[in-house]
Amino acid sequence: MVVPAADRLEHSGKWGKWLQEGTDFVSRFAQNMIKQCKDAHGYQGVFVVTPSGLLLAGSHAAIHDARTVEKHLRQGLEKWENLSQAERLMTKEVFARTVSELGNVEHRSQYPRDGLVLSVIARDLSQTSKLPNRDAYNLDYAWFRKGEARAFVPGRPIRGAKQEVPRDLVERLARFHIIDLVRGNTTSYPKEAVERAELSAEVIDVKGDLVSLHFRGRTRTSEAQVEAKSNAKGPGIPEPQTRGVDAKLEGQAVFDLKAEKFVSFDMVVVCSRWGVNPSRRLHGRDFGPAPMGIVLELGGASAAEQVPPHFVKSYGWKTLDFTIPEINDVSPDYFLRNLKIEN
C-alpha cells in the first residue's frame, strides 16, 4: 500500500525555515531522502520512501508526468516486497521521538474546528491558450474563526434580512484567496492594494434552525510591481508592470443556528486577472487580462484537509501555531479514493 503525502518546500515545523534548513521531523526526513536521490535538483519531485526513510524510487523529473509517477510507484513497490521489517520501519526510539515531536505541536493547532473552513480551487477559464498545462488548477484553504463565520449571517436571521459582511473578512478573501495561484506559488496583496471588498448576505429562507443565504459581491485588487522577482525586462513584457484581480462573487450557504456553524457553503468567483507573479506566467508571456475562475466550498474535516492556508501568517491572528494532523486521523482508504492518474 502506498500512502500519498505532500509538503510545501517552505513549510516545516519551524516557520520561516525551508525543508532544507529545518530541524523538525518533517525537515529531517526530507533532507535524508534527498541525499539518497541521484537526480534531485532541489526538493521538488515525486519520491517513494519507506517510513524508515529509505528511498526506493523517485526523481525530480516526475512532477508532471503521470506515467513516470506510475513507473516510480511500481519500482518502489517491487523493492518494498524484498525489504525486511527492520528496513521498512522506524526503530522504536525514532518512532517515539517522532510521535513526541508531532504531539507537542498538535495540541497548539489553530485549525478553526468550530469556525468556517473553505477549500479554494482556482483555474484558468480561457479555452484559447496554447500554453502547456492550460488546464492547470490549484488548491488552498481559507479559514474563519467562529465569531468571524457568524458575521457572514445577518444578525436577525429572518427571511429578507440583508447585511454587509464585514470588510476585513472580505479583504481577507481579496488579499489572500482571490489571487492568481493557478500555476504555483504567488504573492498576496497588501491592504492598500484592495480597491473593492464588498459582499452582501441575504436570508432567502428559514426552516427551523437552518438559515439559507444568498451572497453577492465584488472585489478588486491592483498594484504596481516595483520590486517583484518577475519584474523582468524584455520583448513582450509591459512597462510598467502591474498585477491585479477584478472579481464578481455569488453563492449560497446554509447556516445552522443551533449548531452555530455552516452546513453548506458554495460560492463561485469569476475573475479577470492580469500581470504576472513568481510562478509560470512570465515564461509564457501570459500577462492577460484573462479569465480565471475560483470556487469556494465547505472544507471537509479530515486531517488531510486541515492544511493551513498559504498566507495564514498574514491573517493577523494571535498565538498562531500550525501542525501536521495526527497520523491516526488519516485513513489510507481516504488517499486511495482520491488518488487519480489520468491519461
Strand content: 25-35%
- Show unreliable segments: 12-16, 320-343
Largest sheet, strands/sense/barrel: 8 strands, antiparallel
Spatial separation of the terminal alpha carbons: 22 Å
> What is Rg?
22 Å
Please count the helical segments.
7
Average pLDDT, rounded to a whole number, is 80
What is the oligomeric state here?
single chain
Category by helix and strand content? alpha+beta
Q: Element order, helices and strands?
A: HEEHHHEEHEHEEEEEH
Plain-language structure description:
- The chain has 343 residues and is an alpha+beta fold.
- A hairpin with a 2-residue loop joins strand 6 and strand 7.
- The strands form two sheets. The protein has an eight-stranded antiparallel β-sheet. Strands 1-2 form a two-stranded antiparallel sheet.
- Helix content is 20%, strand content 28%.
- It contains seven helices and ten strands.
- The relative contact order is 0.13.
State the gist of this model.
The protein has helices at 25-36, 66-81, 85-88, 92-106, 146-150, 167-176, 332-338; strands at 46-49, 55-59, 116-124, 137-144, 162-164, 194-207, 210-224, 242-256, 261-274, 290-298. It is built from seven helices and ten strands.
Keyphrases for this structure?
2 domains, alpha+beta, 10 strands, eight-stranded antiparallel β-sheet, disordered C terminus, two-stranded antiparallel ribbon, 343 residues
